[in-house]
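To: structure subgroup
Subject: Chain for Friday's discussion

All,

I'm putting the inputs and outputs inline so they're searchable in the archive.
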Amino acid sequence: MRNPINKRIFRQFKYKPLKVFPILIALSFIVVFASSFFTAQQSIKKLYYKQIDEGKVEDGEFQTIYELTDDLQSKIEALGLKLYENYYFEEKIDSDKVLRIFKNRKNVNEATPLEGSLAKKSDEITMSAYFSRNNNIKVGDKITVADKTYTVASLASFPDYSSALKNRNDLVMDTGHFGIATLPEKAFDDVSDKQLNFLYSYHTNENLDKKEAREILKSISKIVNKDNLMVDGVTRFDNKCITYIMDDMGGDVPMMTIATALLFIAIAFISSVQIKSIIEEEAPIIGTLLASGYRKRELLKNYMSMPLFLVLISSLIGNAAAYLYVYKKYAEIYYRSFDLPSFEPFISPRSFLITSIMPMILYLIINYAVISRSLNMSPVNFLRRNFKKSKAKSRFHLKNLSFIKKFKLRVIFANKLTYVSLLFGVFIANLLLMFALSAKPIFNIYAKNMKTQMKYAHTYIVKSDMDKLDAPKVTIISADLADKNDESVQIYGIDDDTKYDSLNISSLQNDEAVISNGLAKRFEYKIGDTIKIREPYNSKEKNIKVKAVDSENNYFQIFTKRTSLNKIINRDYAYFNAYMSDNALNVSKENLVTEINRDEMSKFMIHFLDSFSVVFTMIQMVAVAFYFILLLMVTELIIERAKLNMTYLKIFGFRDNEITKIYVNTSFLILLFFQIILIPILDKIMKYLYFISMQKFDAYIKVTIPLNVFLLGYLMTIVIFVLCQAIERRKIGKIDMVKELKTIAG
């Protein structure tokens, strides 16, 4: 026979909607938030690896100053790999945008057309889809490149540039100002006055791990540098243009999983306190049932059924909304920043586990702990509403306080567990809110600081001294930190009489250097420490002693004398490979390897923030909605438990506004006090989280959360409270005094 008391489980939807629906809405909101992310993320991950395989992505690439001879190519292929010419040139369009243009590629890094078909005619061009989306370019549009007009034949995804990094060491993608394009072979060759970059891609005959791939690249370097010069090279494992998206997801997934779990825990605590309140309200009924022969186990199942049922319903609603529509919003964020094939949704097992199984387990554990403890009383105590266990009397006396202050304090003491749950939830909501509010200001500050950290507006990497320009000369190399997992660092060989005079470079000995603040902070280097560096593709290590730290520079850079660096890399003392200048220099196309433009770099960062502003807005919405529902549930719970006392206060002449101040405003004061305490705590936590999340980038961001971010958080708290106060004041005014006075107080 069915247990008749189970019929009341579903009646709570009708008779206690304000206890049920806020929980249901909050849980559904969290499920939609998490499920949409994991669905989009897993779908894109699957597409990414499909593109890597079908697009025949390179195992590595290298760039040389001069075109390789047939003999050198044969020697390189003898290492057990297949070599492909992947030459390109760059052209500016619309004055501030750059296209990197390749020939149509076969057998390596093959493009996947998303719209139209790959360019075949001499007046056609294939454009990268992400660049086109951000610049409103469509198939059939005309575009001028190198003084010639082309028709856009297709928008495509390029597997070797899934992340739009103009330079692999860039901190962020530049989807608005940098794009990839391909031309048919004849059209490519017909472009006159182009500065060709001799880039070679290769496939290895065997599948290699990261270490083995690096060893192959070192072997290639040794062969090339005998008769030519390798100016750049990278394996697929280290190529951020290819791996950035997966590195990015690698940080997003655990962070989202933890955030989702914490949100579920906060709601589970509120739900358990709510059930505890219902148990106290129905104590005489529970006492009667126990006296009639019902067991506590049956009552425990009954009171746990509704919370678990809510989790099940919210999981169904949330996942349905996520799978039908909301996941597309997350996918759009990725497609705004990355170059990927056409989206194909894939339902992720991870999403099901996190949004369905995990909340069920958390709810089961937390509600069982609270409800079983609440039911651990005798039938007599339930009938008498005797919830207090005998204990030593408190020494805390309130006799010197006014009646109102005493009452407010007793409201707090009577709802200790409720307030603990509230504060835990508020902490999580504030963490999300502060992250969303602070991200843009932090990166904006970083973009502005670029102009002070880069001493010169233009840096030109050159092949030789053929141009004889009157500008400061410098030797710049990339090196690996041999004692820090081969992390990449730039080393500058500087002369006297430059803008780097403040570093006192001239006083350095041959084995001494000044390091940037970013390098010191990230890897905990101190003055007097020894840094082991290794040139890429080389096994020889060199030691450099830290003489000083450039406190204003947050890049990963080392500065020493040009003659000292030239000695380290076995070059003539007068050797240099770059010019620095505040004005644009007339470097010949044949001599120019690449240009680093300070203004463009800060522009890229600003565009990146604009592209990701929708992410920050979404997190803000989730945090504010969660905050509002949480505060509404807690104040609702406190008022439900105190209806009889409120009735007494009304009889004694207290007005609704005064009662609201006692019960609702007390919660608000606690929140304000808690948020003052939270400011230094959140500041430290946010700095730590940013430090962890930025470890995948070759830069150190000094996190300074502006005061206005905390003030904005406070303002949102006040607005949320005012809304809750209006709702709860209306409810206090509708209390049925006659009904409450009929309550039996055992």
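Points worth raising on Friday:
The longest strand covers residues 148-157.
The chain has a mean pLDDT of 82.

D.
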